[in-house]
Amino acid sequence: MLRLAIQKSGRLSEDSLTLIRECGISFLTSSYKLKTEATNFPLEILYLRDDDIPGYVQDGVADLGIVGQNVLVEAGLPQLEIEGLGFSKCRLSLAVPRAAGYDSVADLQGKSIATSYPQILGSYLQERGVTANLHTISGSVEIAPSIGLAEAICDIVSSGSTLLGNGLREVETVFRSEAVLIANQSLSPDKRELLEQLQFRMQAVRRARR
Ligand code: PRT
Ligand code: ZN
């Protein structure tokens, strides 16, 4: 039996469940349960915080997972990615207060930047020869400049309305992300075979949606 970890409640949850159901896999859900077994495919679904999914798959607690590429790469586990799933598309962007001048990433030299993605942002800046003070915070990153915590931010953007509402201007795209299927790297041959069946179904669902 394959164990698949998906987000318990958040932006990935509904689309993850829909994808599994459209693969013809039936299971019951209840908001109290942290796992469910499918009735017509050897699959167990675990409901977890998205941040915990890459580590659980790496350690083999789960065989597979569905998670944002942003979370996967920030966790330092990009090698677990099997394929992009085409939903939860977003970008990780740098933004500065609307009135602040900005020409290029070099303007961030010596500045303080609030983010929940210190690894991805750190390597982006390092590749461009920029040294900044990164303040790692886990949420509400967009308010950091207005409360004097940082001069710039780096956070997830989709429509851009949160940035706008907080008086910020998007200046660089650091990373583009979507939901991805991830897998443990030492699955048994039986589990590999089941993974291939699941991937075949997922690809058929995506072709049918186009
Ligand atoms: O509780 P748990 O830890 O599981 O969930 P979470 O709160 O960490 O994650 P969640 O549910 O917010 O997001 C899960 C994943 O969805 C992210 O890791 C991204 O891969 C993806 N995703 C897609 C987004 C967005 N779009 C998004 N817009 N994640 C977050 N946002 C936030 C962003 O942080 C910002 O505050 O929405 C705001 C910006 O949205 P716009 O539309 O105003 O630009
Ligand atoms: Zn999270």
TrEMBL record:
<feature type="domain" description="ATP phosphoribosyltransferase catalytic">
    <location>
        <begin position="49"/>
        <end position="203"/>
    </location>
</feature>
<comment type="pathway">
    <text>Amino-acid biosynthesis; L-histidine biosynthesis; L-histidine from 5-phospho-alpha-D-ribose 1-diphosphate: step 1/9.</text>
</comment>
<comment type="similarity">
    <text>Belongs to the ATP phosphoribosyltransferase family. Long subfamily.</text>
</comment>
<protein>
    <recommendedName>
        <fullName>ATP phosphoribosyltransferase</fullName>
        <ecNumber>2.4.2.17</ecNumber>
    </recommendedName>
</protein>
<keyword id="KW-0963">Cytoplasm</keyword>
<keyword id="KW-0328">Glycosyltransferase</keyword>
<keyword id="KW-0479">Metal-binding</keyword>
<keyword id="KW-0547">Nucleotide-binding</keyword>
<keyword id="KW-0067">ATP-binding</keyword>
<comment type="function">
    <text>Catalyzes the condensation of ATP and 5-phosphoribose 1-diphosphate to form N'-(5'-phosphoribosyl)-ATP (PR-ATP). Has a crucial role in the pathway because the rate of histidine biosynthesis seems to be controlled primarily by regulation of HisG enzymatic activity.</text>
</comment>
<keyword id="KW-0028">Amino-acid biosynthesis</keyword>
<keyword id="KW-0808">Transferase</keyword>
<dbReference type="GO" id="GO:0016757">
    <property type="term" value="F:glycosyltransferase activity"/>
</dbReference>
<keyword id="KW-0460">Magnesium</keyword>
<keyword id="KW-0368">Histidine biosynthesis</keyword>
